[in-house]
Amino acid sequence: MAGGGRRQTRGLRRAEVAERAGVSLDYYTRLEQGRRLRPSRQVVIALARALHLSDGERNYLLGLVGEAAVPVPMSRTTDASARRLLDQLDAVPAMVLNSRYDILAWNRMLDALVANLAELPEHERNTLRWLFTGPAAGIGPRDRARLGRRCVADLRGAGRYPDDPGVRQLVTELSRESGEFAELWERHDVGVHRTVTKRMVHPDVGALDLSCEVLAVPDSDQRVMVYTAAPGTGTDRALRGLWARVGERGGC
């Protein structure tokens, strides 16, 4: 750094963002200040890259200037790398989701935690439907509402609405059937669903304080969602007990 001084704040300076995006400092400053400018699609994508935005955040910016999202095919089958990771996660509940929150694959521990998913129609294997139109079994109302807000912001940030017919159909359905979803969707909040904690009550092992880790699959819209607990806690012991039952039955 010139002058040998230390940076007092984290992040990029305006000049650094402008340089990385290939635009002038004056143009970027006016854009940041909310002047009446309409950046081109190329400029928005370059700025998103310079700011290290996620695909969802980049696509949301494109939508704000009237540009179509950068298309990423909606997953219908499990990505091979996600499948390999899921296969390694025997002792903790885990599942693979696409950006529409469809459950594409899961392990036996997830069945032990929530339900026997194989018995559900494919249409119902969607965690947004569980939260807003289903029982959301075992989750308290406060946690369910908090998770709902995060998931709706994440769905909005995925950048697939209204271009993806599957997402459009899901949004229409949930807006019709859930006033809460409709209200949250109209807020236009955008976020990325990462680690979150929640409490649920299991019919066999009781209250569980779980950490929900969301792992993005590179070059895909898929995420691996894993439920864990702090070592040595009651929840950790309860999960070990569930795993022992799974082993005894050879499945769920």
Automatic annotation (TrEMBL):
PANTHER family: BLL4672 PROTEIN, BLL4672 PROTEIN-RELATED. Residues 7-58 form the HTH cro/C1-type domain. This is Helix-turn-helix transcriptional regulator. Gene3D superfamilies: 3.30.450.180, lambda repressor-like DNA-binding domains (1.10.260.40). The lineage of its organism: Bacteria, Bacillati, Actinomycetota, Actinomycetes, Kitasatosporales. CDD domains: HTH_XRE (cd00093). InterPro entries: Cro/C1-type_HTH, Lambda_DNA-bd_dom_sf, MLTR_LBD.
